[in-house]
Amino acid sequence: SDNKTKFALPAKCKTSFDGKKWVYEVQYDEGNGELVGGGGECELNGDGTKLDNNGIVWNITDVSQQGDTVRIFMETNGKDNRKKATLRQIFDVTSTTFAITEEVKYLDGGDYFVRNKHLFRKKKA
Fold this sequence. Notes:
Layout: E1 11-17, E2 21-31, E3 34-44, E4 50-53, E5 56-66, E6 69-80, E7 83-93, E8 97-106, E9 113-121
Antiparallel strand pairs: 1-2, 2-3, 3-4, 4-5, 5-6, 6-7, 7-8, 8-9
């Protein structure tokens, strides 16, 4: 809530993709045996300009590839700490990692700041 405090939580993520929808479950370890999590599904529209993530429609603003990394920028309008804001998610996908950076920019001014970062690594066989 102070936009400055940072901490890390171990997490596990299970995913599947049926060619149309990406379904995911995430479980965070808060320590002392406390596990919290959730899940959902994402679906890309026909022309690849919008992603529906659990009923929130994100506008895909840029997609690029550099080496083995695909980077996807998405934005939507919403609220953060009960203030109107532009919300941005950046997906970085490789063959072994998946990272999500969540950024916020309040409509009453200021620059984007990082709200959350998630990094998942493919389990070694």
